[in-house]
UniProtKB/TrEMBL annotation:
<dbReference type="Pfam" id="PF00230">
    <property type="entry name" value="MIP"/>
</dbReference>
<feature type="transmembrane region" description="Helical">
    <location>
        <begin position="124"/>
        <end position="145"/>
    </location>
</feature>
<keyword id="KW-0813">Transport</keyword>
<feature type="transmembrane region" description="Helical">
    <location>
        <begin position="47"/>
        <end position="68"/>
    </location>
</feature>
<comment type="similarity">
    <text>Belongs to the MIP/aquaporin (TC 1.A.8) family. PIP (TC 1.A.8.11) subfamily.</text>
</comment>
<feature type="transmembrane region" description="Helical">
    <location>
        <begin position="171"/>
        <end position="190"/>
    </location>
</feature>
<feature type="transmembrane region" description="Helical">
    <location>
        <begin position="202"/>
        <end position="224"/>
    </location>
</feature>
<keyword id="KW-0677">Repeat</keyword>
<feature type="transmembrane region" description="Helical">
    <location>
        <begin position="80"/>
        <end position="103"/>
    </location>
</feature>
<dbReference type="GO" id="GO:0015267">
    <property type="term" value="F:channel activity"/>
</dbReference>
<keyword id="KW-0812">Transmembrane</keyword>
<dbReference type="InterPro" id="IPR034294">
    <property type="entry name" value="Aquaporin_transptr"/>
</dbReference>
<keyword id="KW-1133">Transmembrane helix</keyword>
<protein>
    <submittedName>
        <fullName>Uncharacterized protein</fullName>
    </submittedName>
</protein>
<dbReference type="InterPro" id="IPR023271">
    <property type="entry name" value="Aquaporin-like"/>
</dbReference>
<feature type="transmembrane region" description="Helical">
    <location>
        <begin position="252"/>
        <end position="272"/>
    </location>
</feature>
<dbReference type="GO" id="GO:0005886">
    <property type="term" value="C:plasma membrane"/>
</dbReference>
Length: 291
C-alpha cells in the first residue's frame, strides 16, 4: 500500500497543473514609454551595440553584392551568386546576433525591434533609440563600402534594393511582408521563454534559426526586390547611393522599405503572441484569478 501511495503521489506531481509544472517564467512586459531607462548606461551601451552590429551587417552584405556584380560582369560564374549572397546575409546575422544578444538582444533590424515593441519586450523609448542607431549604423556601413569600392559601388547601384524587371510594386510589397513575417516569427519563437528554458544548455540555438530564416528568405526574395526585409539595410544603401531610382523613384518607392517589413512584423507578433502563446487569454485568466 505504501508503495502504491508513493507511485500515486509521483503521478500527481507529474500531472500537476500548468503553473506547478512550469520550469520557466514569462518575462515581465516592459513599460510602454520606459523613461526611467534614460538614466541607465545599459540603454546606451545596447544602442551602441545595435549601431556597430548594423554597420557590420551593411558592410559585409553590400560588399558581397557589389563584389558579386563586379566579378560576374565578364563571367556569369565569376561571382558568389544568389546562394553566396544569401549565405553572407544569413551567416552574418547568425554571428552578430550571437555576439550582441546578451547586450541589446541582437535586433539589427527595425522590423524586429518593432515586433518586439508590439510584444512588450522592449519599451517605446528603447525601440526608438534602437531604430535610430540601426539606421545610422546602416548608412555608415554602406558608406564604408562606397569609400573602399567607389568605382564599383556607383557602377553596380550601391547594393540598393529595387524591384526586378517583371515584378510590380505590389509584388515587392508582398515579398517584404511575407519575408519579414518569417524572420520575426522565427525571432519570437527562438527567444520564447519556454523554449529558452528547455534549450538553455545549447546557447547557439537562438541565433542559429534566426540566421537560417534570413538565409532562406534571401533565397526566395532576392530575385524580386533584393530581399529588403530589413528597413535599415534598405535605407542605408539607398541613402549612400543617393540615386532617385533606388530611393524615391518609380522603381521602388521609399515607403515600401518600411511599410512592408513593419506590416510583416506586426502580423508575426500578433500570430505568435495572441494565437500560439494566447497572451491575451492568459492575461484575462490571471486577472480573473486575482478578482
Amino acid at each position: 500500500m505504501a508503495s502504491e501511495e508513493i507511485v500515486q503521489e509521483e503521478q500527481q506531481q507529474l500531472n500537476g497543473d500548468e503553473f506547478a509544472a512550469r520550469d520557466y517564467a514569462d518575462p515581465v512586459p516592459q513599460p510602454l514609454l520606459g523613461a526611467s531607462e534614460l538614466q541607465r548606461w545599459s540603454l546606451y551601451r545596447a544602442a551602441i551595440a545595435e549601431f556597430v552590429a548594423t554597420l557590420l551587417f551593411l558592410y559585409l552584405t553590400v560588399a558581397t553584392v557589389i563584389g558579386h556584380k563586379h566579378l560576374s560582369e565578364d563571367d556569369a560564374c565569376g561571382g558568389v551568386g544568389l546562394l553566396g549572397i544569401a549565405w553572407a546575409a544569413g551567416g552574418t546575422i547568425f554571428l552578430l546576433v550571437y555576439c550582441t544578444a546578451g547586450i541589446s538582444g541582437g535586433h539589427i533590424n527595425p522590423a524586429v525591434t518593432f515586433g518586439l515593441l508590439l510584444a512588450r519586450k522592449v519599451s517605446l523609448l528603447r525601440a526608438a533609440l534602437y531604430m535610430a542607431a540601426q539606421c545610422l549604423g546602416a548608412a555608415c556601413g554602406a558608406g564604408i563600402v562606397r569609400a573602399l569600392n567607389s568605382a564599383h559601388f556607383e557602377q553596380h547601384g550601391g547594393g540598393a534594393n529595387v524591384v526586378d524587371a517583371g515584378y510590380s510594386k505590389g509584388a515587392g510589397l508582398g515579398a517584404k511582408v511575407v519575408g519579414t513575417f518569417v524572420l520575426v516569427y522565427t525571432v519570437l519563437s527562438a527567444t520564447d521563454a519556454k523554449r529558452s528554458a528547455r534549450d538553455s544548455h545549447i546557447p547557439v540555438l537562438a541565433p542559429l534559426p534566426i540566421g537560417f530564416a534570413v538565409f532562406v528568405v534571401h533565397l526566395a526574395t532576392i530575385p524580386i526586390t533584393g530581399t529588403g526585409i530589413n528597413p535599415a539595410r534598405s535605407f542605408g544603401a539607398a541613402v549612400v547611393y543617393n540615386q532617385r531610382n533606388a530611393w524615391s523613384g518609380t522603381t521602388l518607392p521609399a515607403w515600401i522599405f518600411w511599410v512592408g517589413p513593419l506590416i510583416g512584423a506586426a502580423i508575426a507578433t500578433l500570430y505568435h503572441e495572441h494565437v500560439l502563446r494566447a497572451s491575451a487569454l492568459k492575461a484575462r485568466g490571471s486577472f480573473k484569478d486575482r478578482v
